[in-house]
Amino acid sequence: MNKTVKKVVIAAVSIGVLFIAILLFHIITAKPAVYDSPNLQVSRIDFKSNIDSVQAKQICADLRTIKGLTTDSIIVKRNVVVYFHNNKITNSEIVFNELMTKRPYEAERYILPEGMANKEVCPVDQNSMSYKVSKSINQFFN
């Protein structure tokens, strides 16, 4: 009985040491994630009438041909199209103008009102303890 307990303890300690060694190796050698998000912008086009499924596919196909758009991030709901684009390559005005040259769409580009342009949009309270702890943990691992 004594030998069996000793073997189980040695096995558990060995697994624990191996786990910690792998974790430390990963922390030391892992490269921080690099996001191209400062160049990613969301824009919106408002259509005057509701968009059916055929029109939605047509609009998506037309948008995907425009350079600078992330092709997997086009959202079509009722009479609104939301898309993401790289603001180093294009801007919402260029995208809107190119889309309008492809077909005679009845739409207008959504322009953010001046009062909302400078508002902070992050819903997290940056002075809260949970935000500070999660930020510290993220910086430790990155």
Q: How do the helices and strands line up, and which of them pair or pack?
A:
Elements: H1 2-29, E1 40-47, H2 53-64, E2 69-77, E3 80-86, H3 92-102, E4 107-109, H4 114-117, H5 129-141
Antiparallel strand pairs: 1-3, 1-4, 2-3
Protein name: Heavy-metal-associated domain-containing protein
Briefly say what this structure is:
This is Heavy-metal-associated domain-containing protein. By secondary structure, the protein is an alpha+beta fold. About 50% of the residues lie in helices and about 20% in strands.
What's the main sheet like? 4 strands, antiparallel
CATH topology of the largest domain: Alpha-Beta Plaits
| Count of alpha and pi helical runs | 5
Low-confidence parts lasting 5 or more residues at pLDDT below 50? none
Number of strands: 4
By CATH reckoning, the class of the largest domain would read: Alpha Beta
Mean pLDDT, rounded to whole units? 84
Kindly provide the radius of gyration, computed on alpha-carbon positions and rounded to a whole number of angstroms. Answer: 26 Å
Q: What sequence of helices (H) and strands (E) makes up the elements?
A: HEHEEHEHH
Structural class: alpha+beta
CATH second-level architecture of the largest domain: 2-Layer Sandwich
Helix content: 40-55%
Strand content: 15-25%
Strand order of the largest sheet: 2-3-1-4
Note the gap between the termini.
46 Å
**Principal-axes shape call:** elongated
What count of structural domains?
A: 2
Protein name: Heavy-metal-associated domain-containing protein
Organism: Flavobacterium zubiriense
